[in-house]
């Protein structure tokens, strides 16, 4: 239910958590084309104030026997991805693949309809990617690389 085109989804074992609607269906489309189905796809949005955070969704996927791996789709602004990386490193037991949008975004400029912004050194793509790498998350450079990385971690 919602704005996602239903034909791109396929039942499977990968959970997806995303701050970006457009990147959700782009990456899910690549997953489905690579014969990787999804257990649940959760859009948490990119607004400064949200109801569900990455950690909330990760906790649900940790307890879900149908989910064998998770994709995190983040973007510039805020620190939710860094918080998720810490949680993954300390408490999460399933493989995670990540993608961070906004690698070339200029500082202090609002981006997108949700107004993602990098303030000072906080919220940069580089910070988020570093946190993911330190937590053992495989990070895709491009959306189409997510499926390849998932196949590697699901072997």
Automatic annotation (TrEMBL):
One of its GO terms (cellular component) is succinate-CoA ligase complex (ADP-forming). It comes from the Bacteria. Keywords: Ligase, Nucleotide-binding, Tricarboxylic acid cycle. GO terms for molecular function: nucleotide binding; succinate-CoA ligase (ADP-forming) activity; succinate-CoA ligase (GDP-forming) activity. Pfam families: Ligase_CoA (PF00549). Coiled coil: none annotated. Signal peptide: none annotated. Residues 17-136 form the ATP-citrate synthase/succinyl-CoA ligase C-terminal domain. GO terms for biological process: tricarboxylic acid cycle. This is Succinate--CoA ligase subunit alpha. It comes from candidate division WOR-3 bacterium.
């Amino acid at each position: 239910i919602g704005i996602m085109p239903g034909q791109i989804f396929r039942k499977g074992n990968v959970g997806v958590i995303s701050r970006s609607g457009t990147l959700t269906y782009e990456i899910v489309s690549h997953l489905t084309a690579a014969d990787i189905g999804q257990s649940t796809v959760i859009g948490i949005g990119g607004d400064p104030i949200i109801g569900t955070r990455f950690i909330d969704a990760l906790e649900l996927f940790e307890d879900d026997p149908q989910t064998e791996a998770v994709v995190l789709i983040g973007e510039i602004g805020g620190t939710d991805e860094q918080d998720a990386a810490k949680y993954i490193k300390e408490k999460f037991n399933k493989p995670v693949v990540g993608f961070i949008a906004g690698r070339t975004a200029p500082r202090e400029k609002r981006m997108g309809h949700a107004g993602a912004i990098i303030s000072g050194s906080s919220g940069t793509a580089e910070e988020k990617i570093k946190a993911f790498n330190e937590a053992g998350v495989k990070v895709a450079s491009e959306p189409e690389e997510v499926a390849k990385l998932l196949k590697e971690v699901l072997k």
